[in-house]
């Protein structure tokens, strides 16, 4: 594919994602072409039908997310911090829209492969966080991935929304005090020793 043709294809996909995220799935092919500054014929040369364009938008979004996730995983930061950063990035993308745009009756193999790679990345990261002691150990890797998908693949997901915050709080491991730590004593009990019944 020539460089200018590749640029046009990427421009169409980027424009389509922006319009779909702002206005919903009812955006027409003509509106997408007009917003991209291209003719409808150019759009249809790259994407012969609406579903092929939607599949391309979904694949582009997932590739971007996968590349960002791999870059985060390669950092030396604690695994919990990496998990939170990737989850925040996911919540900032219109993943619910992407999920709704793909044809459930005809799973595109490229999209299926990308989803599998993303799930594997999340599972490996979750298991590493468990070994690190920062993520609760009573959940399996696939269970953690399922919870993360529920959090980010829903309408209105944001990095700081209550559901995402509650999910992360629930996944984080709770630090237990050492077994030989004495029970806490309140200031009141220290300053006012308990008297026996005889008043001594």
What would you say this structure looks like, in words?
The protein has 200 residues and is mainly α. The protein has two domains: 1-48, Arc Repressor Mutant, subunit A (Orthogonal Bundle); 50-171, Tetracycline Repressor, domain 2 (Orthogonal Bundle). The chain has ten helices and no strands. α4 packs antiparallel against α6. The longest helix has 24 residues, at 50-73. It is elongated.
Itemize the secondary structure elements and their pairings.
Layout: H1 3-23, H2 29-36, H3 40-46, H4 50-73, H5 79-91, H6 95-101, H7 109-132, H8 141-152, H9 162-171, H10 187-191
Return the structural class.
Answer: mainly alpha
CATH classification class of the largest domain: Mainly Alpha
Span of the ends, CA to CA: 95 Å
**In total, how many beta strands?**
0
CATH superfamily of the largest domain: Tetracycline Repressor, domain 2
* Beta-strand percentage range: under 5%
> Averaged pLDDT, please?
84
Q: Treating each run of at least 4 consecutive H or I residues as one helix, how many helices?
A: 10
Radius of gyration: 25 Å
Biggest sheet overview: none
Could you say which overall geometry the principal axes of the C-alpha atoms support? elongated
The helical percent reads 55-70%
CATH architecture label name of the largest domain: Orthogonal Bundle
How many domains? The number is 2
What is the H/E order? Answer: HHHHHHHHHH
Low-confidence stretches: none
Q: Which fold name fills CATH's third level, the topology of the largest domain?
A: Tetracycline Repressor, domain 2
